[in-house]
């Protein structure tokens, strides 16, 4: 599932504003609002929003562009910053929200982090990808976690917990597993979804 482009997010925000006023704008009204000359480019954005589950399919039987329940339930998940998939770095709060389909969300409180680095590429997680993280303080061995190391730096790794030791495993042969004592590692959450822009 690809994240929304900036224009798609702007259109979704516009549709949400209209929905709060009880309106469902037509394609022509959306073109006017965004000063678009072609409905073709708008149609591509609308189709992307349909594919993401935010806009109801336009089947010609209703007037206007209608949001799905998913789109009106929430305005996205908080984007809490960037996290290293190589060496640990600090996750930075960016104070923005990212539209995430419910199929990619966990059961509990979730947030989004953007991945930096290449240590998880063998798991299909690349530099620039977004991961959806369910906030948890415990994880099972083998789960992909956001781990806070020494209360100062967060990293994305597979976790192995043994008596007296926590090992954070990369998924790249060029990187070595990181070994810590249990009191050095705090689990911040477990990865439950991933998104990428091509």
CATH homologous superfamily caption of the largest domain: Umud Fragment, subunit A
How much strand? 25-35%
Low-confidence stretches: none
Strand order of the largest sheet: 2-1-3-4-9-5-6-7-8
Tell me the helix content.
10-25%
Number of domains: 2
Instruction: Find the count of extended strands (DSSP E, 2+ residues).
Output: 9
What structural class is derived from the secondary structure elements?
alpha+beta
Order of helices and strands: HHHHEEEEEEEEE
Structure annotation, total helices: 4
Oligomer: single chain
Cα(first) to Cα(last) distance is 10 Å
Specify the CATH class of the largest domain: Mainly Beta
CATH fold description of the largest domain: Umud Fragment, subunit A
Quick one: biggest sheet? 9 strands, mixed
Question: What is the residue-mean pLDDT, rounded to a whole number?
Answer: 86
CATH architecture of the largest domain: Ribbon
Structure description:
The protein is of the alpha+beta class. It is built from four helices and nine strands. A nine-stranded mixed beta sheet has the order 2-1-3-4-9-5-6-7-8, with no helix packed on it. A hairpin with an 8-residue loop joins strand 7 and strand 8. The protein starts with 5 loop residues before the first helix and ends with a strand.
Topology of helices and strands:
Blueprint: H1 6-20, H2 27-34, H3 39-51, H4 69-73, E1 77-84, E2 96-98, E3 110-116, E4 130-135, E5 144-149, E6 153-162, E7 165-169, E8 178-180, E9 185-195
């Amino acid at each position: 599932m690809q994240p929304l482009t900036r224009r798609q997010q702007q259109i979704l925000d516009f549709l949400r504003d209209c929905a709060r006023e009880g309106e469902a704008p037509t394609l022509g009204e959306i073109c006017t609002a965004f000063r678009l000359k072609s409905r073709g480019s708008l149609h591509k954005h609308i189709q992307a929003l349909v594919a993401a589950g935010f806009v109801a399919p336009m089947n010609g039987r209703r007037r206007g562009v209608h949001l799905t329940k998913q789109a009106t339930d929430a305005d996205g998940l908080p984007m809490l910053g960037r996290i290293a998939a190589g060496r640990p770095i600090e996750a930075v709060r960016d104070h923005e929200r990212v539209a995430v389909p419910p199929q990619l969300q966990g059961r509990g409180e979730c947030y989004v982090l953007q991945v930096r680095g290449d240590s998880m590429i063998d798991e299909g997680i690349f530099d620039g990808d977004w991961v959806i993280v369910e906030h948890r303080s415990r994880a099972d061995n083998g789960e992909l976690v956001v781990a806070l190391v020494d209360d100062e730096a967060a990293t994305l790794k597979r976790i192995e917990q043994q008596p007296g030791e926590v090992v954070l495993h990369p998924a790249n042969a060029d990187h070595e597993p990181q070994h810590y004592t249990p009191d050095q590692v705090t689990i911040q959450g477990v990865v439950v979804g991933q998104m990428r822009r091509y």
